[in-house]
Amino acid sequence: MSSAEEVMKPGATLTSTRLRAPRAAATFARAITYEIMNIYAIKMAGVFMIATSTLGIRTGFIARWITFFGYAVALLLLLSSRYIEGILLVFPLWVFLISIHILIDNLRGLEE
């Protein structure tokens, strides 16, 4: 082994240990972000669905079956957000369903 290799070897070890700390922090930050998005955001979507379904029942701007479907899906979001993989798509599909219903209802109003 030459003297240059011996001098470089401790520096390489020091550099690799310095790079491990930010990777560990980045991995931790990614895990925390994943938990926040997959738990709290899904639960907030469930609460929003309950509030919108309640407004739908009281004001009648959407059909009753959509409001009851909203309650059922909201309970599913609130209670089983960690155990079902495809649960992330339920909220956008529910919003799409309400949007289509409102669009069809408005188009019926124009025909009459």
Total number of beta strands: 0
Unreliable segments (pLDDT under 50, ≥5 consecutive)? Answer: none
Strand-pairing-aware structural class: mainly alpha
Order of helices and strands: HHH
Number of domains: 1
Q: Would you kindly provide a written description of the structure presented here, covering whatever features stand out?
A:
By secondary structure, the chain is mostly helical. Helix content is 85%, strand content 0%. The longest helix has 57 residues, at 3-59. The radius of gyration is 26 Å and the shape is elongated.
Keywords:
112 residues, mainly alpha, 85% helix, elongated
Give a quick rundown of the structure:
This protein has 112 residues and is mostly helical.
Describe the secondary-structure layout.
Elements: H1 3-59, H2 64-79, H3 90-111
